[in-house]
Design brief:
By secondary structure, the chain is an all-alpha fold. It folds into two domains: 157 residues, Ferritin; 153 residues, no CATH class. It has ten helices and two strands. Strands 1-2 form a two-stranded parallel sheet. Helix 1 runs antiparallel to helix 2. The chain starts with 8 loop residues before the first strand and ends with a helix. The relative contact order is 0.09.
Amino acid sequence: MISSFTQRRRFSDLSEQDVLALAISSEEDDARIYRTYGQMLRADYPASAQVFDAMAVEEDGHRQLLIDMHRKRFGEVIPLIRREHVAGFHARRPIWLTKNLSLDTIRGEASGMEAQAAKFYTLAAGRTSDAATRKLLGDLAAAEAGHEKSAVGLEAQLLSGDARAQEDAGARRQFILTWVQPGLAGLMDGSVSTLAPIFATAFATQNSHTTLLVGLAASVGAGISMGFTEAAHDDGVLSGRGSPLKRGLASGIMTALGGLGHAVPYLIPDFWTATSLAMCVVFVELWAIAWIQNRYMDTPFVRAALQVVLGGALVFAAGVLIGGG
């Protein structure tokens, strides 16, 4: 029996017993996933963890009902068949890929799990001409739709407005600490600190190719340096700033991009055309920094713009004066 499922089978080839066995294994998997979500979230988001714990208990109850139905119709031996054995059956994200998901994404994954199951059984019921199979699939579709409604009800019951607001605020704060702050620091460093060497080289040589090489070297070097520095100086355990790898990537990549933005225009052979475009890119970069500060760091936009533009203008002027001298 096991060997017969080593190849993916079409859903239309499954018997009613096979479909029931598939539903049982699916409920087992979903309960396991919900318990994993609860364990992942328990330390930082206890209210949401409680919701997933309760959803896992409900899935256990649904599984028991399906087992009782199988025992009544087909006996004690349940065929071994899982989602991966059936072509076209709704897939579940592997657990190891969910560890870095945000709280909102996990909530969406749970809602999608139930909605996908209900949709799958509904479509499958519409494609069969056997009355008994159609009824079975319709019952399963209704059960899955009921699961989705139950999940919404459980969340409303266990996750109050204040608790959800607090968890959402905590998730946003963690996102800012792990991604936004290191990325913003990198973008500022890459955009501002590379202005002087790039434009000094530009006005000293008036050669696009030379300026491009200097810009690439300065940007990539700064990105590597900032990335390693961010990852090495804080492991995130005490500060709560999150994974050093994530922060290092955010800082290093944004630093490199900040410098490359006004270096890449020097791919244009004509020096003055490239320089004019690079100046426009610098303007966009500085205003982007001001917008991020206003959007995520609650810095008044006018103050952020004045600080960034003034600092960038001073560095740019220093590069022009040094290169022009």
